[in-house]
Amino acid sequence: MDEGSIAACREPCVMRAILFDFDGTLASTMEDNYRAWQYVLHAVGADIGREEYFLLEGMNLAEIARTLCKRHGITLSDYADFVRQKEEYYIQHHSFSFYAGVENLIKDLYVSGVPLAIVTAGMHDRIARSVPAIFLNQFKAVITGEKTERNKPFPDPYLKAAEELGVPIGECVVVENAPLGIESAKTAGAFCIAISSTLNPQLLSAADVVVSCFADIENIPLVRDMLRSTDY
């Protein structure tokens, strides 16, 4: 990210908390999730494209299943079981890793006293079984797909996270990687940073700032300011 793009972004005066999407933002899990969806959909006669799935990221998992099945002319009697099969395939075949710079920045923010949350449409069971507990323990709130009736692109997940942190949503930064997540964050009233880790930057233009990789986040002035301050 060049300095010009940082300077041109619409930054608020004071930010107190950071809310992170998970898949494709903190962790390089999108390819594994894509392969899991491919597996279960292929079994019922459908084949999906990578971007086709990536553009749905953040949506309730059952809604992803319904959307993809409808698009490919498939009707299922039990979408919940279909999602369960997808999640189990992921657990059995994933190769989990964080993006470069994630563990260091999260630790620095945590030590600085910045309230942190994860906000994901992923199920709690998958997150608990695949993410190191020592990492998750740095987050004051973990909002998974079961915690709100409506998932992204509705504002509910980010509003729930801000509520659990005890910080007004207008004083929260959201870090996302997908259009539905950006819509959720902006509708909620948060400042949004998007990472083009899985999609073309042009598809993320509704965010306040777009960066090319996670490591660029700490160069954004409002994030640097949060790291310098411990008065939360």
Explained architecture:
With 232 residues, the chain is α/β, with parallel strands linked by helices. The chain folds into 2 domains: 158 residues, Rossmann fold (3-Layer(aba) Sandwich), CATH 3.40.50.1000; 64 residues, Orthogonal Bundle (DNA polymerase, domain 1). Helices cover 43% and strands 10% of the residues. It contains 11 helices and 6 strands. The protein has a 6-stranded parallel beta sheet with strand order 3-2-1-4-5-6, sandwiched between helices. Helix 4 crosses helix 5.
Q: Count of DSSP helices?
A: 11
Q: What helical percentage do the residues reach?
A: 40-55%
CATH class descriptor name of the largest domain: Alpha Beta
Strand content: 5-15%
What characterizes the major β-sheet?
A: 6 strands, parallel
Structural class: alpha/beta
* Second-tier CATH architecture of the largest domain: 3-Layer(aba) Sandwich
Shape: globular
CATH fold field value of the largest domain: Rossmann fold
What radius of gyration results from the CA coordinates? 17 Å
User: From N to C, what is the helix and strand string?
Assistant: HEHHHHHEHHEHEHEEH
Low-confidence stretches: 1-9
Specify the CATH homologous superfamily of the largest domain. HAD superfamily/HAD-like
Whole-number count of domains = 2
State the end-to-end CA separation: 28 Å
Output the strand order for the largest sheet. 3-2-1-4-5-6
Arithmetic mean of pLDDT: 92
Number of strands: 6
